[in-house]
Structures are given as C-alpha cells and as structure tokens.
Design goal:
Layout lengths: L7 E4 L3 E6 L6 E5 L1 H11 L4 E7 L3 H12 L3 E6 L5 E6 L5 E6 L15 E5 L8 H12 L4 E5 L4 H4 L2 H14 L2 E5 H7 L5 H11 L3 E5 L5 E5 L4 E4 L12 H14 L4 H16 L9 H9 L12
Parallel strand pairs: 1-4, 1-8, 2-6, 4-5, 8-9, 9-10, 10-11
Antiparallel strand pairs: 2-3, 6-7, 11-12, 12-13
Length: about 300
C-alpha cells in the first residue's frame, strides 16, 4: 500500500473535449481519461505527475494551465497538435465521442521514481506510443503499485480480439483495475460484469472495481473480498469525466488504508459530484469530505460512470 503523500505517475493522453449539445455553442473542456485522473488526484491532495503529449497550440496551453492549476506536474513530449474529441451529449447528458488523436510517446523514463503508476484508455492501446507505455510499466512492475482503467473507446480499439489481448496483458501487470460495465460489454459481449471481474482477478490484480452507471459500483479482491455501493442521485449536467473521478477517488482512498467499502463510497460520491456539473470537473478534498459527511449514498439513484 502506498501512502496518500506518495507521488503517482499517470501515463496517457490529454484531449481537448469539444462539447456539443443541440443548438448551443461548442464548449472546449480539458480532458483525456489519464489527464482527468491526474487532475482528480491532485484535487484530492495527492502529488501527481502526468507523462503525456501536448501540441504547441491553444488547446495544449489550455490543458497545461488546467492541470497545473490543481498542482499536477506535467511532463509533456511535444506533439504536432493537441488531440481533440467532439463530445456529443444526448438529452440525459450521456456522451458520445469522435476522436482526432495520435499517440506517439517515445521510449522514456519518469523524471522521478514513482510510488504508484496509473495508466489506461487510448494511450494503452494506440501505437506506436502504447508499446512505450507497456515497456515502462513492465520495468516498474514490483517497484511501484500499478493501476489500470481500459476506458474503452470502440472507435479506436481496432480488432476486438487484439484489443482483448492487450487489455488482459495490462490487467495481468496491474495491482488494481477499474472498468465500467460499458467497457466490459464491448470487450466481452453478453458476459456478466461480475464474471469478468472474477476472471480478471485470476490474471493477477489484487482488486477489480466495476462501475455500473445508475446501479452504482462493485469491487472484488483476489482474497475473496466483496463490496457494493449504490449510486448517489444527483441532477446530471453531463457524464464527462465521471469514471475518471471515480478512479481518482478510489485510488486516493485506497492509499489512505480505507477498506473496500469505504473506497467505493468515496468513489461513487466523487463521480456523483462530477456529473452534477459540466465537463470533467472532479471534487476537491473539501468538497468530497463535505459530501461524505452527509452519509453514504442511498440504495437508488443515478451516476457512477
């Protein structure tokens, strides 16, 4: 177990989310799943470094300012342009993405030894950078705690069988894995999330946590631990970044020594606070503490992401 003061190295993409809703003007939000996790960790008081790529453009400057405003240390390789995604929201605030992204991270080492590494999403499956991510994780396995969120983007995953192979290789290298029921439905059509979680535990991780949207979340451990948490009902602005807020809060709570149920409660509460406001805007430590003081999420409602 790492401590809440231990630094986390997050590896992965930054994305300028161009949010589109009906006839309203487009809004640009800093995004990208790994970037959101780094930002969420920093908002909760955990030292975080993001190893990423950014272009020398307005979107790159926007994202860097956003991350650094929370205290994230940005180690960015210069790209030709900052990746972007058009995020179309339906009437319930659910997001559909279309991407303009390349991931070309060269072989690299972190500037400082990390106590923990988090990776996932596009950067874990998109070549040529995905091979650099995998090599770095393999080198640090056993010296740093590894967490992974596949955060599946079907349009970028390529062949399903190959995607499953890549995902399972990273699951096997990880100590903690978080996924959504939507991720699992694409990777393993028709298979219950609980069954996938149990099979993943056999591959190597100590903990697998799965979000279920309006049904909350559950977590399983390799030694037989089980926990569930209901979603917290809130008015939904949009679901952008909710899963990343869940991940950041779960990882932070785990580092404090919280038990599995408390980790889930922290995580679903952070996700609910995020969906209640536009964009990937996770709670601060004070906001999360205030929400948790109101009591655990009731057994009904919407949003874990």
């Amino acid at each position: 177990m790492t401590s809440p003061e231990s630094p986390v190295l997050v590896i992965g993409e930054c994305v300028a989310d161009i949010v589109r809703t009906g006839e309203a003007p487009d809004r640009v939000h800093p995004g990208g799943s790994p970037a959101n996790v780094a930002y969420g960790l920093a908002r909760l008081g955990r030292p975080a470094t993001l190893l990423t790529e950014l272009g020398p453009d307005a979107n790159g400057r926007l994202i860097r300012r956003h991350l650094e405003s929370a205290g994230v240390r940005v180690e960015a390789v210069e790209a030709s342009r900052t990746p972007s995604a058009v995020v179309e929201l339906d009437g319930q605030g659910r997001a559909r993405y279309s991407f303009d992204i390349r991931w070309t991270l060269p072989p690299t080492e972190p500037a400082e030894p990390p106590a923990a590494i988090h990776l996932g999403s596009i950067a874990a499956v998109t070549e040529p950078g995905a091979s650099s991510v995998l090599a770095l994780v393999e080198r640090w396995r056993g010296r740093a705690r590894i967490s992974y969120d596949p955060n599946v983007r079907p349009a970028l995953m390529g062949d399903r069988a190959e995607a499953v192979r890549r995902v399972e290789r990273l699951v096997a290298l990880s100590d903690l894995v978080k996924a959504s029921d939507e991720d699992l439905a694409w990777l393993y059509p028709g298979e219950p999330p609980e069954a996938v979680a149990e099979r993943w535990l056999v591959l190597g991780p100590a903990v697998v946590a799965v979000t279920l949207g309006a049904e909350g979340a559950f977590a399983r451990t390799a030694d037989g631990g089980r926990a569930e948490a209901a979603a917290l009902p809130v008015p939904v602005a949009d679901t952008v970044g909710a899963g990343d807020s869940f991940t950041a809060a779960f990882l932070h709570a785990r580092a404090t020594g919280a038990d599995l149920a408390a980790c889930l409660t922290n995580a679903v509460t952070a996700a609910a606070l995020t969906v209640a406001r536009p964009g990937a805007n996770p709670p601060s430590a004070a906001e999360l503490a205030a929400a948790l003081a109101d009591g655990p999420p009731p057994r009904s409602g919407a949003s874990a992401g």
